[in-house]
Write a structure and sequence with these properties.
The structure is a homodimer of 343-residue chains. The first copy, chain A, has 343 residues and is α/β, with parallel strands linked by helices. Chain A has 2 domains: 161 residues, Medium-chain alcohol dehydrogenases, catalytic domain (Quinone Oxidoreductase, Chain A, domain 1), CATH 3.90.180.10; 153 residues, Rossmann fold. In chain A, 25% of the residues lie in helices and 23% in strands. The first copy, chain A, is built from 9 helices and 15 strands. The two termini of chain A are 17 Å apart. At the A-B interface, helix 5, strand 12, helix 6 and strand 13 of A face helix 5, strand 12, helix 6 and strand 13 of B. Strand 13 of chain A pairs antiparallel with strand 13 of chain B, so a sheet runs across the interface.
Chain lengths: 343, 343
């Protein structure tokens, strides 16, 4: 069977040569374990932290030669665990490989036991997107910390991504006016398709003028997935007591603690203090909460959420697609998935 | 009578030559107005925003020749308003002058009518400190947004200042371990005097080692009055789900939106996201709330709050003392006040 291993630590943004597709012996399920066949693999930008040369606090750390870490939906094909019989579908972090033998209940202290996926509820790939961690994060950002109210203005960076596209639609359901920021005309057109009121292209030469026109009275909530130049441009539009859920900061994932000058901390602190800005970061364990996910499932059943999936075919194309998410080089909209095998 | 006017806009930190002490005709109380004699003047670093060349949103903007803006405790010496008879003591924003004629109820939309000061409760100067805006801000930061719990570790920058020294003592009352950061041995000694567990000197060559030793398990709450290099050094010690009330950012008051590189935004966004940090800025209107002030008054009566006042004698020395607060050049601890006249 095939798997993708870390070849070398990336310096800055990851590049395809940091990864290698290799053959590996077929794994066997040990006592209490299950053998799963990977159907869908999530390409999650947060993996960048696990492949940094420097070990980061609270993050799984990989070494060259290790299989890449990643969420999957898989089918159980052999089982030594009564709760997970053959044929059942599971979501978990089994990595970038065609098959894996795993302990379904003891392996992951952060997320708990592997979650069973009900194929009657929605397409099973949604367990990695709208009905998985990105959907949960979008719900927690917009409904939870963002406290989006009818009539408010919500701005979303990385709006075409898995979290951003959901957060925008949730904000629309809540009655807000929603401005999405994405790179390129195709992504911006899709944002309007799925119900955003305005789409602003951060790659356009008149980005700042577009942004200013889109926010004549400023924003109440800024759901940030990106940081960097986009956030520096958005922050001055904060209204008094605005809220800023930070679901990601992909512009800086490869940067470390300091980037090239000028220093934007003075302006950030000035706006935090003078506008009484409220900020909260979201990483995995914070967003856990079944209530939000249940509401998302209901909205999916009612057809209120237009979730999009960008599908890459085959494990051999995973690394290149993953790398493109860091450079804005992809034109994909929605949750980025690899179809590793047909169900 | 004497008053202090803005002579020129400061570039960066304010300097004494930006101010001028001038003679002015004695004001007269018009219909509905009162004539007050200034007893105490607060030197509030936030005035920096009102004397910036650039007009800032939501801030009173002064021009050269205008009297400096500032909170005072005054005595009514002539009155055309029945609610404010001669002899009563009032707190309001009457500015850097020996006498002022003001409308006691209509002049200040942000803070409401002038507040009467009860000399039986505590020394009247406390209406500008522990029982005024700084005390309210400290209470809102520690009790409100900071949600300080017994057994937690609280770090405070600008700990010898009016807000910081109160926030530290409130955190002690709440049962926390409190680490104060201040500049110089004298200020650090005073922090220990008023009950801080540890005092860290940011001017010492081993500042980072002191900080690391003071925070072996990181911090739960960071009450920031300073920003700049101090905050860059403190942030990596954030525990998961730490809270960061931002009561001020004096290191950047004269800087504008950008400072010299490197850019510290990448590290700040990384910590916000990966530690699920919660941040909230506090400016004036947010902290209004009589409940906090009532609790502060009770703690003062019970002797639980050791409030310190740093008194500058005479309006002619106000500008120099104000300027020193921006450069760390003063060795004063507590609320910085000018005694303009004896009561």
């Amino acid at each position: 069977m095939k798997q993708v291993v870390l070849q070398s630590f990336p310096q800055g943004n990851p590049a395809p040569e940091n990864f290698a597709l290799v053959d590996a012996p077929m794994p066997q399920a040990g006592p209490g374990e299950i053998l799963v066949k990977t159907l869908w693999l999530s390409l999650d930008p947060l993996i960048r932290f696990s492949i940094d040369e420097k070990r980061l606090t609270g993050v799984v750390h990989l070494q060259p030669g290790d299989v890449l870490y990643g969420g999957t939906v898989s089918e159980v094909i052999a089982s030594n665990h009564a709760d997970y019989p053959g044929g059942c579908l599971v979501e978990g972090r089994t990595g970038w490989r065609e098959y894996a033998a795993v302990d379904p209940v003891g392996g992951d202290r952060v997320r708990g036991p592997m979650r069973k996926v009900d194929p009657a509820l929605a397409p099973i790939s949604t367990a990695l997107g709208v009905l998985g961690m990105p959907g949960q994060t979008a719900h927690a950002a917009a409904v939870g910390m963002g406290r989006v109210q009818a009539g408010e203005t919500v701005v979303i960076s990385g709006a075409a991504g898995a979290v951003g596209s959901m957060a925008g639609q949730i904000s629309k359901i809540l009655g807000a006016r929603v401005v999405g920021i994405a790179g390129g005309a195709a992504k911006c057109a899709t944002l309007l398709d799925i119900g955003f009121d305005v789409a602003v292209d951060y790659k356009a030469p008149d980005f700042k003028a577009q942004l200013s026109a889109a926010l004549p009275e400023g924003f109440d909530v800024y759901i940030d997935n990106v940081s960097g130049d986009v956030t520096v441009a958005v922050l001055p539009f904060a209204k008094f007591r605005a809220r800023m859920p930070v679901a990601g900061f992909i512009a800086h994932y490869g940067v470390g603690m300091e980037g090239p000058g000028p220093d934007h901390m003075p302006g950030f602190m000035r706006i935090i203090n003078s506008r009484s800005l409220e900020i909260r970061g979201f990483s995995g364990p914070v967003v856990a909460g079944e209530a939000g996910l249940a509401e998302m499932a209901q909205w999916v059943r009612e057809g209120k959420l237009d979730y999009r999936e960008a599908v890459v075919e085959g494990l051999e194309n995973a690394a290149a697609a993953f790398c493109e998410t860091f450079t804005g080089g992809n034109s994909r909209v929605g949750k980025l998935l690899v179809r590793v095998a047909a169900a």
